[in-house]
Structures are given as C-alpha cells and as structure tokens.
Amino acid sequence: MNVGVDYYPEHWDVSLWEQDARQMQEAGITLVRLAEFAWSRLEPTEGNFDFEWLDQAIAVLARHGIEVVIGTPTATPPVWLTHHYPDVLPVDNKGNAMFAGVRLHRCYNSPSLRKFGKRIIEQITRRYAAHPAVIGWQTDNELAANDCHCENCTRLFRGWLQKKYESLETLNHAWGTVVWSGEYSDWEQVNTPLGGSPHLNPSFLLDFRRFSSNAVADFNRFQAALIRENSPGKFVTHNLWGYPVTADYYDMFDSMDFASVDYYPATDFLDDSKSKMYHGALTLDLARGVKRQNFWVMEQLSGTPGCWYPMSRTPFPGMIRAYAWQSVSRGADTIVQFRWRSARIGAEQFWHGLLDHHGQPGRRFDEFVQFSREARKLAPLLEGTTLKHDVAMLFSHEQLNAFQIQPQADGFDYLGNFKRFHSAFLRMGVGVDVINWREDFHGYKLVVAPMLYLIDDAIAGKLKGYVENGGTLVLTTRSGVKNMDNVCLPDRLPNLLTDLAGVYVDEYDPVGKDVQTLILATGEELASSQWCDILTPLTAETVATYASEYFAGEAAVTRNAFGHGAVYYIGTVLDERASQVLMKRIAGVAGIDFELELPDGVEVSIRSSEERRLVFVLNLSREPKEVPLPARNYVSALSDRRIPGESIKLGPGGVEILVEVNSTVTASA
Ligand code: GAL
Ligand code: ZN
Fold it and tell me: Quick check: CB of 338 below 6 Å from ligand 1?
C-alpha cells in the first residue's frame, strides 16, 4: 500500500522543491507521479532534450524517500510540434483541425505524433531505466477515443474496413447501405462519418467507434512496447478516466500491467448535472474489472473541483479520507492524490489540490495526513488481499456505444440502468465483480447481463452453458435486438436468447418517463419506466405482471428453469426500489449470502486473503448513520478496539475497517 501525490515541479520555482519534498515525506508520501504534461520542458525545441530539471526533481524527491512514476508526455504535444507538423492535430467531422492550446490535441494515427512520440518516449525511458527511484511508467494521460477525420484516419479507417469485410459487397450488405442510396461502388467513396448527423447509418457509426477505440488501444500498445523495450522490468500502467466512454478499456489495457483510475467523486450532492459524471462504487468496480485484479488510483480527489465548470463544493469534512478508503475498499492498492499544490498558473488554477495557493497545510491536508498514517498502519494487513465475489455483472462497451448511437427511449441510459442493478447489490452489502462481457464468468453463482442489445452466437452459447451447469442468470429488456453489425435480427425478441429465457416479447412499448406498475405474486407493487416488453412465457413462469395501462395482466418478469440453472428475464426498467426487491429475491434463490440492509450512502465491502478478512464500513453521506453488521467479533484495524458487532455508528464521512477476530491476528500497531 503506497500513498502518493501528483506533482508538477516544472510549475514551481526550484527553490520550493526541497521544502515540498520534505513536507511530502512528513505527510507519509512515498510516491509521486510527474512529467505527464511536460513535453515542452523535456524537448524545448525539436530534437533538443533537457532532462536536467527532471533529474534534479527526482533527486530531491528520492532524498526524501519518495519514488516516482513518470508519465509519457504525449497528451500535450508542444507548440513547435503542432506548428511544424500539423498532422498531429485531430480534424473534426466538419473538416476543421482542432486548435492547439488546451491539451489532448493529438491524433493517435498521426505519423508525426508517432515519430516524435517514439523519440521522446525512447529518450525518457532510456534515461531513467536504471534509476532506482523510478519504479514505473504511466502512458499518456486519460486516453479517450478520438473522433478524428483527418486524412490519415480516413485512410486507415478504409483499411480497417477492408480487413474486416474484405469486399465492398460484403460491407454494403453488412451495413445495409441500400437504405437511402448509401451503397458504395469504390473504396475511395468510404469516408469517416462526416458532418456529424446522428442519423447516419448506425452500422457505419458503430464501426467507426470501434475503429477509433482500436486506434487508441493501438497507441497505448505502441507506447507500452517502447517503454518495455527501453526500461525493462518496470511496470507500465495508464490512468483511465471514468465511465461512460467510447474507448473499450478492456482492449486499451491489454498492454498494461495493471489499471489505474482517476477518481473524482461528486462533491455537489444536490446538483445532479455534476454528480452524474461520477458513479463512485461502480466506477471503482469497473476499474477493478478492467484487469480483474487490484488497481491504483492515480488521481484522487483532494479539493474543490473547478475550471471545467463553475467550482463545486469543497469536499466536506471527512470526505477526502473516506473516499480514499472507499477506493482501497474496492481494490485500490495505491492512492495518488491529485494534486500536491493547487496551480497558481494555467487553466487548472481552481482545481484544488491538497494545499491551497498559499501552500500552508489546512483541513484537507490534515485529513489526508490522517489517511496516510492509517494507510501505513494497515499496509501489512492489506497486503495480498483482494475482493472475491459470487456475483458478476457483464459490462460491454459495445452495448454502451450502440445505445449512445440509438437511444432507445426517453431516459434510457445503459450505464444508468446498469448502475441500478449494481446499487441494488450494494445496498444488500453484496459485492459484485463488474467484468468484460466477453470474458469467462462460469465460476459465479449469479450473473447479471443487462441489456445485451447486440448479440452473437458466442455470447448466447456461453450464457446457455453457464445456466445449463447450474448458474443463475439475469437477462433484461433490450436484449437480442441486433447482430454485431448493429442490424436488427429477424426473429422474435430476445432472438438467440428466447430458448434460454423461455419467453418471447410479444410487443413492446418505449414508455419513457411514464411510470408503470408491476405486481409480484406476493401482491407487492413495484414501479418501472423507460421500456415495457409485453411477455409471452413459453417455458418460463411469471414472476411479476404489469398492473397498469393496456398491458395490465401481462407478464413483465419471468423465471425459466434451464438445465441445472435458472434464467430471469426482466422486461422493463425497474426503479431503484424495485431493483432492490427483485435482486434480493433472486440473490436469495441463487444462494448468495447477504445479511445486510444498508442505509443510504453506506457501503460495506470485504478484502480478504487466505489469512484474513477486512470488512470496510463507510458512511459516504453527510448524516450520521447506524450500520447493521453480522453479529461477529471484530477488532477495529484503525483503533485496535474491539467492536462487538450487530451495529456500529458512523458520523458523516465515517470509516471503520474491521478485522474478524477469528480470521486473523489482531491489527499490528
Ligand atoms: C483529470 C486529469 C488531470 C487533471 C484533473 C483535474 O481528468 O487527468 O490532469 O486535469 O482531471 O481536472
Ligand atoms: Zn486523425
């Protein structure tokens, strides 16, 4: 367990470095990430390199026992580069080149970016390959799929399509270009989706998103290979930006040793427009699922976020510590706070760090120091622990992209709907692994595969095999709608999944924001919206029926016994409470242990190893909470006090980390 900060020595007078490093050391910081935007300082003019300042900065940090992760600076091509080699700049769908001056102004397919990127990466990795304080590398910064329409991207997109479809005839057929006379008769006619209309052919749009996603994954592989060649033995990671994103993170991280995530939970609890960007627990579970292993947080919230929009509320007392522990509770092994000092210069002056512009420690800093002290104490206990779960949720960037291209109904949102299931388990204190839908899931007791809109025989076959062997599967509405070319399938929904679900969709109604009522056999009423499939059970039994509108009395949720397992089909989008009621019931039948009903804003998760189990209990709300706990004997790993179990009280932002007494030796002081 390491605690660090993001630091920009090049933004500060050299005379401050020593003081900064000393203060970092006193705060328990053992790691700094740096240089990820410093290309113009590392190569001030073409081919003239200057590493002396970085040598010196690393030396100062190393003298204070601080190790370093260096970021390759490719997210910010310097002015000389874009000026002399304009192919570096991405081109938008109207044919206009992006202006330099902010950041991320680079096309991954630009030959100049590759050429000069390769050289700066070689230079920097060779220079620090043997440096004992440099422990690893971060590629670029928050890579995202570009929507680039430059000449190079156009040429490569054509090549990508030629490889995929071989002939134009196949492409025309796969995309259905006959509609609106869109048929191509020469490869030269095929462009990237220019003009930006959302009504372009959806198959074309999805393939372009795949191409763009491939391009960024390829760019990451290009960097990883260069780093490994020149700095063997050191790790390579990348800091992903939160979801939702076009780029397929599973693909983008295949060249990385582990995943890192930048985690900025919302501080404006009441302003949904801002808090929507962040999905706390789900983001962290997705990050753990990228490589199906523990991860790092490369940027962790440290102060008032701002500059991209009016400033948000400052993290309320307890929040910096609580969210850092939340990251650890969901699998982070290293926490790097963004950033050490708040910038006095440049665009991000108001994205606050641990220290304000005046540089004097204050409340937020003290809270971080508390976390850092606690992290040091718990490091030996955390060593070798990870999260192990009986429930998996299958996540798919393909579905996310397809739904973004064709939103299905008013309010229908892939990630938002996905989150309802995830939160339902969270409220029961049941941990979930969120994994790539293409990966192996046979070992789980319960698999939730929401909205499998695009489908092929491979996934249908895997799901069948899983259930035949005794698994419990949850399928939902908007499944089996299309093939992987984003073309509607010809049979009744859910098409390739009809057998398995034992039910078909007779008719559907995209009800949008019109709230519908459902009734369970117990008489309990539930609510749903967005979409209603009117179901005809074949072999399935009905679990819930609609009780509103013209489809009252028709099946809304079914359960089908299949092989040794069972399949639930949820034909509508349940609201939060309904998701909880149904998931609780399904989890019970699937043999998932759950003993909790957690209050709003409270999370419980467990990191374990062969030797021990650590139960994290977090109150991420602004009110005091009483949290029920399974009646066992616990010792607090933070305070070493015995906790009798049954329930504990946590103040706003309260954190407790419990060691089950019979599971380990007590916390080492
Ligand atoms: C991240 C980014 C950082 C910084 C931070 C605050 O997304 O990686 O460089 O910009 O946001 O805005
Ligand atoms: Zn391009």
Answer: yes
What are the residues facing 574 on neighbouring strands? 528
Distance 149 CA to ligand 2 centre (A): 5
In this predicted structure, the answer to whether residue 666 has a pLDDT above a threshold of 50 is no
> How many distinct helices (H) and strands (E) make up the chain?
18, 25
For the chain, the first-to-last Cα distance in angstroms comes to: 16
Please state at what angle helix 414-427 crosses helix 280-291, rounded to 10 degrees: 100
pLDDT band at 665 (very low <50, low <70, confident <90, very high): very low
Using only C-alpha atoms, the chain has a radius of gyration, in whole angstroms, of 26
pTM value?
Answer: 0.97
> Tens digits of per-residue pLDDT, 120-170?
999 999 999 999 999 999 999 999 999 999 999 999 999 999 999 999 999
Q: Compute how many other C-beta atoms are within 10 angstroms of the C-beta atom of residue 243.
A: 22
User: How many angstroms separate the CA atoms of 407 and 173, rounded?
Assistant: 24
Q: What topology is assigned to 602-660 in CATH?
A: Immunoglobulin-like (2.60.40)
Write down the architecture of domain 391-589 according to CATH. 3-Layer(aba) Sandwich (3.40)
Q: Whose CA is nearest to atom 9 of ligand 1?
A: 141
Task: Please tell me if the CB atom of residue 413 comes closer than 6 angstroms to any atom of ligand 1.
Answer: no
* 153 annotated ligand-binding residue: yes
Q: What is the mean pLDDT of residues 251-278?
A: 83
Class of domain 2-146+215-382: alpha beta
pLDDT digits (tens, 9 = 90+) for 332-376: 999 999 999 999 999 999 999 999 999 999 999 999 999 999 999
Domain boundaries, the chain: 2-146+215-382, 391-589, 602-660
| Strands 613-619 and 655-660, sheet pairing | antiparallel
Helix ranges (DSSP H) in 65-150: 79-84, 111-128
Which of 262, 277, 284 is closest to 336 using CA atoms? 262
Reduce the DSSP state of residue 212 to 3 states and report it: helix
Do 2-146+215-382 and 602-660 show the same overall fold?
no
pLDDT tens digit sequence for 99-110 = 999 999 999 999
Tell me the pLDDT band of 273, cut-offs 50, 70 and 90.
low
Segments of 417-500 assigned E as strands? 432-436, 446-449, 472-476
Q: Catalogue the active-site residues.
A: 142, 299
